[in-house]
């Protein structure tokens, strides 16, 4: 399928500083693509160039196959949903008015706007009869974020950009909002580009993750590709440095193994029952030479008897990683 968003050699420089230093990325319709990486690596700048809040210094951005420079910047911005951390709700306007800003600008009549706002509030889990006429100051942080998401969806955009949308809410509410976003995405199928610092959020929400460093994408791929096939030391270090992942070095693989009957052969290697989840990740990352592909599973073999007592699949390992990062058993 043709990409709906395409960045080709995109650069943004401020004086002698390259905030974004040659980014190439193609995003498919309906995909959730997460941009992650250290502070200052260029995530926000990349995102803002997609809806032309920032103009690139060089390179090309195509939206639905058309060069963004040929599109009207204001119309483009309104056609793309945008959610930011500091929500930016207008304090003097009701929730209904906040949600319906873009529909109002587009000339939608008031009665229809109220119906639309009510639908969207219900979608994000806020009973409309209770929330339509409230003002932002009478909402909790999590409720304000939900209104922010409802507003971004108001014009039914194909594309939604989210910059640390849940960055300012506490961890429990954050997990809940992530679950809700996943549920909403399951029914609206938008193309979402989401910036986050939260690796658990990236693994949970991202169909693909683009890991950035100093203005460049170091690797883009599915969560499993980044975890099991890191393209550079920076990628494995980014995962390994995460303090919540250290515990995986203390948990034996027997915790997540399936019965040996599930072994499909062509395994990525073997591991002793005392091996840890971190050892298993390393095995997947650097499969034994001769292994057909490291897509297979790892056999857990008793060193005393040589008998296979179980298998560890990449899916089981990825689930354990997501759960470890989620802290509360994972957002799922
Ligand atoms: N208007 C500007 N003028 C000069 N430098 C800028 C400007 N905007 C961003 N930069 C620099 O460009 C780099 C990338 O900034 P950007 O905001 O995209 O980073 P980020 O990955 O979103 O970081 P964070 O995770 O902290 O939000 C940073 O080094 C930043 O200081
Ligand atoms: Mg940022």
Question: In words, what does this structure look like?
Answer:
With 332 residues, the chain is of the alpha/beta class. It has two domains: 230 residues, Rossmann fold (3-Layer(aba) Sandwich); 80 residues, CBS domain Like, CATH 3.90.1280. 35% of the residues lie in helices and 22% in strands. Strands 6-7-8-3-9-10 form a six-stranded mixed sheet, with helices on both faces. A four-stranded antiparallel sheet has the order 2-1-4-5, covered by helices on one side. Helix 5 packs across helix 7 and helix 9 packs across helix 13. The two termini are 29 Å apart. Magnesium ion binds next to helix 1. The site of magnesium ion has 2 residues, from helix 1.
Strand fraction band?
Answer: 15-25%
Q: Bound small molecules, which ones?
A: adenosine-5'-triphosphate, magnesium ion
| Tally of DSSP β-strands | 13
Overall 3D geometry?
globular
């Amino acid at each position: 399928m043709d990409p709906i968003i395409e960045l080709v050699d995109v650069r943004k420089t401020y004086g002698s500083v390259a905030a974004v230093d040659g980014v190439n990325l193609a995003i498919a319709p309906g995909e959730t693509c997460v941009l992650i990486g250290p502070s200052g690596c260029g995530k926000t700048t990349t995102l803002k160039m997609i809806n032309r809040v920032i103009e690139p210094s060089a390179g090309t951005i195509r939206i639905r196959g058309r060069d963004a420079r040929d599109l009207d910047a204001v119309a483009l911005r309104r056609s793309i949903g945008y959610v930011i951390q500091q929500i930016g709700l207008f304090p003097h306007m009701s929730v209904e008015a906040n949600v319906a800003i873009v529909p109002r600008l587009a000339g939608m009549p008031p009665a229809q706007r109220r119906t639309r706002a009510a639908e969207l509030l219900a979608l994000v889990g806020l009973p409309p009869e209770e929330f339509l006429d409230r003002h932002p100051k009478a909402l909790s942080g999590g409720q304000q974020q939900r209104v922010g998401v409802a507003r971004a969806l108001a014009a039914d955009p194909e594309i939604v950009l989210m910059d640390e949308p849940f960055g300012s809410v506490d961890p429990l509410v954050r997990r809940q909002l992530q679950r809700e976003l996943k549920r909403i995405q399951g029914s609206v199928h938008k193309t979402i580009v989401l910036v986050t610092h939260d690796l658990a959020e990236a693994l949970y929400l991202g169909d693909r993750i683009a890991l950035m460093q100093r203005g460049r994408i170091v690797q883009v791929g599915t969560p499993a590709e980044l975890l099991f096939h890191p393209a550079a030391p920076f990628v494995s270090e980014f995962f390994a440095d995460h303090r919540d992942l250290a515990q995986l070095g203390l948990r034996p693989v027997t915790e997540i193994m399936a019965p040996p009957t599930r072994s499909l052969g062509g395994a990525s290697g073997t591991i002793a029952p005392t091996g840890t989840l971190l050892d298993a990740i390393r095995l997947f990352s650097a499969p034994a030479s001769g292994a057909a592909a490291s897509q297979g599973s790892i056999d857990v073999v008793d060193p005393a008897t040589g008998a296979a007592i179980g298998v560890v699949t990449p899916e089981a390992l990825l689930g354990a990683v997501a759960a470890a990062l989620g802290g509360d058993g994972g957002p799922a």
